[in-house]
Amino acid sequence: MPQPRARFGIVLIALVLGAVRPASVLGATWDVEATLTDERKNEFTADGSKVTETFEQSYVIGYEWQINPAFGFRLDFTLDVTDELTEGPDPDSDYDRREINPQLEMEFQAVWWNLYTNWETS
After folding, report:
1. The pLDDT of residue 23 is above 80
2. Where are the domains of the chain?
């Protein structure tokens, strides 16, 4: 004679599997975006010219999955990289600077509530 707990566990697993379908069935989507910019600035002074080049790169990867009609999930990862190269008339005024800013956003959406979290650093 089967145990009542075992039957309850099988029914619970069947209900969960029925509610949560594979991502390909419900159309999970991936978003990928890249942006690159380059700016060059020349400043002319009595001592000489100062050249500053700024390279900015931004990469975004997003994943969205509608788990069931009442519950959805979204995850975004953003990476911003800025390189600044400066050359001046005086060798002591030459410097390079790199700034890296990662950011992670996650969101759970339901019919009556929304949970959002965000992490970033530089």
Report:
1. no
2. 22-120
